[in-house]
Design a protein that fits this description.
Layout: E1 9-13, E2 15-16, E3 19-20, H1 24-31, E4 38-42, H2 48-60, E5 64-69, H3 74-86, E6 91-94, H4 99-107, E7 111-113, E8 118-120, E9 125-127, H5 130-142, E10 148-150, H6 159-169, E11 174-176, H7 183-192, E12 196-199, H8 201-204, H9 212-224
Parallel strand pairs: 1-4, 1-12, 4-5, 5-6, 6-7, 10-11, 11-12
Antiparallel strand pairs: 2-3, 8-9
Length: 225
């Protein structure tokens, strides 16, 4: 998997502080011609029917769709997986790993990328040891998960060391998610060379340029150069 691409993929998240923005549909409409292939948002707070329409628009533009669920119980995670299936979403990120969620995703052809480590709160905070997270990630992959949702820059320890160790130690797609808000962190992501990384809030805070659409292309060009 790691050898099939030349650089990490940007997943544009229409989210701020781990919640989907109310004007997500309008933001995507302004950016649909951008260079980013991967698009998604969170499970809260938009109504399901509104979520379906946004994902439908993304698919009509040929985009690959992601739903990230920032919930930690089995019941909430399974509800998120059902939401992803109802929306025709291709990748489910987040949740703590449960066999029930994994089985549901496999049955509905959804690529499941659960969190690793001790994840709490919203916005999320990540704790745990690097070695423990590598072991945990490998066990999820062995049980059928597609990849791992790594909250690298939400880690209370050395984020850069964590990102590099997990990508190197897990033979499956790793998405570094959350708080990538500077070119310095983009350089670190590029060095770690994950399958993908997410940016959401930083685009709304204009950390990479003046408009949302402009920033998406700036980041796509920067990470691929």
């Amino acid at each position: 998997m790691k050898n099939e691409q030349t650089h990490a993929n940007l997943v544009v998240m229409l989210t701020w502080h781990d919640y989907t923005v109310e004007n997500a549909a309008q933001v995507f409409e302004q950016c649909k011609a951008s260079k980013a292939q991967y698009w998604g948002f969170k499970e809260h707070p938009l109504p399901l029917e509104q979520m379906k329409k946004i994902y439908e628009s993304m698919k009509q533009c040929g985009k690959t769709t992601f739903l990230e669920v920032v919930s930690y119980s089995e019941e909430e995670g399974l509800a998120g997986a059902e939401m992803a299936a109802a929306c025709g979403c291709e990748v489910l990120m987040g949740t703590k790993f449960y066999d029930s969620i994994n089985d549901y995703c496999r049955k509905h052809a959804i690529k499941y990328m659960p969190f690793v480590g001790e994840v709490t709160g919203r916005p999320s905070v990540l704790e745990g040891t690097i070695e423990g997270m590598i072991t945990e990630a490998r066990s999820y992959i062995e049980r059928g998960a597609y990849g791992i949702d790594l909250l690298g820059y939400r880690y209370t320890g050395d984020a850069n060391a964590l990102n590099q160790a997990i990508v190197a130690g897990v033979n499956a797609p790793v998405c570094i998610a959350g708080s990538i808000d500077s070119f310095e962190r983009l350089d670190e992501v590029r060095k770690a060379a994950p399958w993908a990384f997410t940016i959401g809030g930083a685009f709304f805070e204009n950390k990479f340029g003046d408009t949302f659409a402009e920033q998406v292309d700036i980041v796509c060009d920067y990470i691929s150069r």
